[in-house]
């Protein structure tokens, strides 16, 4: 089958950073689905893995996580879907990726594709909505009926765009997002943020200037290390900060006097660790699918780069690494 992968770490400016090749057909595990991939979307993790993964000598590693497609086969123990079902999912970081014609994926991390969306529109959602949902409810442990504030640092990115919508759709939280450009500010407001503040300066000062109360929940989605001291000043007493980005070392002692907490979200934990509650990703994707079809949540797709090819995929990687994207970038299948 056709696939695109990497033979080793290279910058996106190198035409050899990704290669097209004929890959072996997926071998299904008992609870796997075999999916004909119809569309994929890109996330920062795609670029990070491309820039760091070193396959074994002579091997090519298929990248890609977000996907939407049609079930064309099922494992012996699979029961959640049948052949012909349209699905969407974010896959696993330790298995062959979605940049291929076909992919094997555990049904417990797969949801029914929203019927109201195209495959590309649906592919834009899974990784970000899983991350947003798990961060908000499993890590920050926000209550759906709380009269509290949620601060989202980096509201116009993929996860921020999903988190604004999910928080507005299923909680009573006041949602304050951060953005530094007029177009990203408007994007956050259009998605439902109650207010948007500028993160180009100290975030605690921006909150105060806007008349916002101390947030009980802070979702730090980007540049956590740079913002952390301001976030520690901003967070409410006994509040909690959750992060998803990569960094080394934080002065967490700044949270002690407030008895505030710090937590990580990593959406690949459940499938990689095969946790007993792994099926929660299927359940939350199913709920999000219903919210989309009800018109409460919308796709965050902003650009479709066309058919899956090395050239188009590298262009998507370059755009992501520019740091200027809003929403999500998708590609159709081969």
From TrEMBL:
<dbReference type="GO" id="GO:0005737">
    <property type="term" value="C:cytoplasm"/>
</dbReference>
<dbReference type="GO" id="GO:0003723">
    <property type="term" value="F:RNA binding"/>
</dbReference>
<dbReference type="InterPro" id="IPR011032">
    <property type="entry name" value="GroES-like_sf"/>
</dbReference>
<keyword id="KW-0560">Oxidoreductase</keyword>
<keyword id="KW-0862">Zinc</keyword>
<dbReference type="GO" id="GO:0008270">
    <property type="term" value="F:zinc ion binding"/>
</dbReference>
<dbReference type="InterPro" id="IPR013154">
    <property type="entry name" value="ADH-like_N"/>
</dbReference>
<keyword id="KW-0479">Metal-binding</keyword>
<keyword id="KW-0521">NADP</keyword>
<dbReference type="Pfam" id="PF08240">
    <property type="entry name" value="ADH_N"/>
</dbReference>
<dbReference type="GO" id="GO:0016491">
    <property type="term" value="F:oxidoreductase activity"/>
</dbReference>
<dbReference type="InterPro" id="IPR020843">
    <property type="entry name" value="ER"/>
</dbReference>
<keyword id="KW-0963">Cytoplasm</keyword>
<dbReference type="InterPro" id="IPR051603">
    <property type="entry name" value="Zinc-ADH_QOR/CCCR"/>
</dbReference>
<comment type="subunit">
    <text>Homotetramer.</text>
</comment>
<dbReference type="InterPro" id="IPR014182">
    <property type="entry name" value="ADH_Zn_typ-1"/>
</dbReference>
<dbReference type="Pfam" id="PF13602">
    <property type="entry name" value="ADH_zinc_N_2"/>
</dbReference>
<dbReference type="InterPro" id="IPR036291">
    <property type="entry name" value="NAD(P)-bd_dom_sf"/>
</dbReference>
<comment type="similarity">
    <text>Belongs to the zinc-containing alcohol dehydrogenase family. Quinone oxidoreductase subfamily.</text>
</comment>
<protein>
    <recommendedName>
        <fullName>Zinc-type alcohol dehydrogenase-like protein</fullName>
    </recommendedName>
</protein>
<feature type="domain" description="Enoyl reductase (ER)">
    <location>
        <begin position="13"/>
        <end position="331"/>
    </location>
</feature>
<dbReference type="InterPro" id="IPR002364">
    <property type="entry name" value="Quin_OxRdtase/zeta-crystal_CS"/>
</dbReference>
<keyword id="KW-0694">RNA-binding</keyword>
């Amino acid at each position: 089958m056709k696939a695109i992968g990497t033979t080793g770490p290279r910058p996106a400016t190198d035409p050899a950073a990704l290669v097209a090749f004929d890959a072996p057909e997926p071998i299904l595990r008992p609870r796997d689905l075999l999916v004909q991939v119809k569309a994929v979307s890109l996330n920062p993790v795609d670029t990070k893995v491309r820039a760091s993964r070193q396959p074994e000598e002579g091997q090519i590693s298929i990248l890609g996580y977000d996907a939407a497609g049609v079930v064309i086969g099922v494992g012996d123990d699979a029961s959640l879907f049948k052949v012909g079902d349209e699905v969407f999912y974010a896959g696993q970081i330790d298995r062959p990726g979605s940049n291929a014609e076909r992919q094997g994926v555990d049904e417990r991390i797969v949801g029914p594709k929203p019927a109201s969306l195209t495959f590309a529109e649906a592919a834009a959602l899974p990784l970000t909505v899983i991350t947003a949902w798990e961060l908000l409810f499993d890590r920050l442990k926000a209550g759906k009926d709380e009269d509290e504030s949620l601060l989202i640092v980096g509201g116009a990115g993929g996860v921020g765009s999903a988190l604004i919508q999910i928080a507005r759709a299923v909680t009573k939280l006041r949602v304050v997002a951060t953005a530094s450009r007029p177009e990203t500010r408007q994007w956050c407001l259009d998605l439902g943020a109650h207010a948007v503040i500028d993160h180009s300066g100290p975030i605690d000062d921006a909150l105060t200037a806007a008349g916002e109360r101390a947030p009980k929940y802070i979702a730090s989605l980007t540049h956590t290390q740079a913002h952390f001291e301001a976030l520690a000043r901003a967070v409410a007493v006994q509040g909690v900060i959750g992060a998803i980005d990569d960094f080394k070392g934080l002065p967490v002692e700044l949270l002690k006097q407030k008895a505030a907490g710090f937590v990580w979200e990593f959406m690949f934990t459940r499938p990689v660790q095969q946790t007993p509650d792994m099926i929660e990703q299927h359940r939350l994707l199913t709920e999000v699918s219903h919210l989309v079809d009800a018109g409460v949540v919308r796709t965050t797709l902003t650009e479709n780069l066309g058919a899956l090819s090395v050239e188009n995929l590298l262009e998507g990687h370059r755009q992501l690494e520019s740091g200027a994207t809003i929403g999500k970038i998708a590609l159709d299948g081969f």
